[in-house]
Amino acid sequence: MTPAPVTELPLLRIEALTKRFDGFTALDNVSVDIKPGERFGLIGPNGSGKTTLINCISGAFRTEPSTVTFNGEDITRLPPHVRTRRGIARSFQIPRPFRSMTVIENLMVAVDFTSGHLTLSVDDHRDQAMAILQQMGLAAKANAGVTGLSQVELRKMELARAMATRPKLLISDEAMAGLSGSEVDEVLDLLIKLAGESITIIMIEHIMQAVMRFSERIMCLEAGKIIAIGKPSDVMANARVQEAYLGT
Ligand SMILES: Nc1ncnc2c1ncn2[C@@H]1O[C@H](COP(=O)(O)OP(=O)(O)OP(=O)(O)O)[C@@H](O)[C@H]1O
Question: How much is the pTM?
Fold first, then answer.
């Protein structure tokens, strides 16, 4: 007997998402499925709706009547902190660490946030935070103050803070902006390593080489609409993408 085809449920499903600010439509009927473990690139010119889409996924913006389903659960009405506990984490374009704390203390706060009903000791918090710092190549900076970090270390710490919430889905919002070529490669290698450890990643990035190298699929938005989605080479070859995004 021929076995039934395996149907892989999406980790994230967005259905008919429209987001308006007063009369202005920032997202227009966007639907997309993201598979578990997928490396997904989100591109589009300035103002095309990328950050708005992330805010709708993370819960910062309400999205009704459209639905957002995560890991099989309708999370449309869940507030951001509950979505984080369900496994959605985002890093911010401009890192927002607690500046008076050390690197490891910043991570311990994030560990504490998602430890839920578990009563963890300070040592448990520290051990979990240190494990994340090791994973992110930042262990040597554990006891450093945040203000002494370089730009690339700050970006890695921002990603580490997101990772400390033990996400299934990590949304990386322009983690490489303003970094040098070799620093971009460092952060990219880190994100690829995390994806290899079964984290699903949505990467928003203007650095095209980085998105191309990272992504298994790319979606391009323009004026709140999906104008292309598919393999990176196909999306980049798309005439509308070239016109809208690359200005050619
Ligand atoms: N809270 C808000 N209130 C009103 N308009 C908003 C709000 N947030 C975003 N917009 C508008 O929605 C549109 C999409 O913005 P968004 O920030 O999602 O674009 P983006 O693709 O992330 O741009 P960028 O690449 O510059 O970060 C823009 O025209 C923006 O001005």
Answer: 0.91
